[in-house]
Amino acid sequence: MEQYKKEFIEFMVECDVLKFGEFTLKSGRKSPFFMNAGAYVTGSQLSRLGQYYAKAIHEHYGEDFDVLFGPAYKGIPLSVATTIAFSELYGKEIRYCSNRKEVKDHGDTGILLGSKIQDGDKVVIIEDVTTSGKSIEETFPIIKAQGEVKIVGLMVSLNRMEQGLSSNASALDEIQGKYGFPANAIVSMEEVVECLYNKECNGRVLIDDKLKNEIDAYYEEYGVKTL
Question: Could you give the residue numbers annotated as active site?
Answer without folding.
Answer: 104, 106
